[in-house]
Amino acid sequence: MGKFDHIIIVTDMDGTFLDSTGRPVEKNIRAVEAFCREGGHFTFSTGRMHGDFALRMPELLPLANLPAILVNGSYLYDFATKTVIEADYFDCTLARELNALVKRDYPGVGLRITTSTGFLTESVTDLIARDMRGMMDIVEVRGAETWDGGLYYKAVARGEADVLLRLRADAETRWPGALAITRSGARTLEFMPAGISKATRLPRLRELCTVDGKPPVLYAAGDFENDFEMLSAADVAVCPTNALPAIREICDLSPASNDEGVIAALIELLGK
Predict the structure, then answer these.
(1) How far is Cα 20 from Cα 14, in angstroms, rounded to an integer?
(2) What architecture is domain 7-87+197-270?
(3) pTM above 0.90?
(4) Is the dihedral of CA 245, 226, 7, 215 positive or negative?
(5) How far apart are CA 186 and CA 157, in angstroms?
(6) What is the rounded CA–CA span in Å between residue 15 and residue 259?
(7) What is the per-residue pLDDT across 227-252, written as a single tens digit (0 to 9) for each?
(8) What is the DSSP code (8-state) at residue 111?
(9) From CA 153, how far away is CA 59, in angstroms rounded?
């Protein structure tokens, strides 16, 4: 029996587990390894898909001893067995309609679709090219008229913040109740099926870690709007000190910035 047997830590990556340059913080890695040796349950909850994660951060995969929450809650993924455990999909017709809206009324915005095998777009804008740096092997460029029923998870719009605010309002008016729309950054707007968020998969993780009818204590960590539902659903909500103000307001703990190693700081508090 370890001292962390009945604790789950679920953490966002960008802006939380990773530093401000998008790289892992070494003290977070060492702390998570120690946490898991003492029976703790740990995983990631991110807007990334599994191919993206595996290409960019392969060294982090062994840290997760639970399935990861990927694409903002669209599915759970077990990196050990390379298996999708449960998933919700984005309607391909809606993906085409959203793409048409962006092309017609928001020409400075780039749109990409996250699929089961990578990413799909009609054209690679400068922002999309930056996002996809090192991953162009899993980016498919083809006309939206051919987007016809693959396993799509979400759409991501990249552009100027004020333009994305208008796009968000437009989409909410055009497709009321059909979309879950959230920001994962000032210049990134994400569209998932209605009802999907990072909180969607938390009950399954709790179930996996419940022993003899005793549920675990779930700590969730995040920094931006797309973490709001997950933090609200956790037993204890944690954020970096430099998180979005609206996120700081709902959190129970804010022990360090993401550059200082907020997850390491959390584990240190749990060990006291």
Answers:
(1) 8
(2) 3-Layer(aba) Sandwich (3.40)
(3) yes
(4) positive
(5) 11
(6) 8
(7) 999 999 999 999 999 999 999 999 99
(8) E
(9) 25
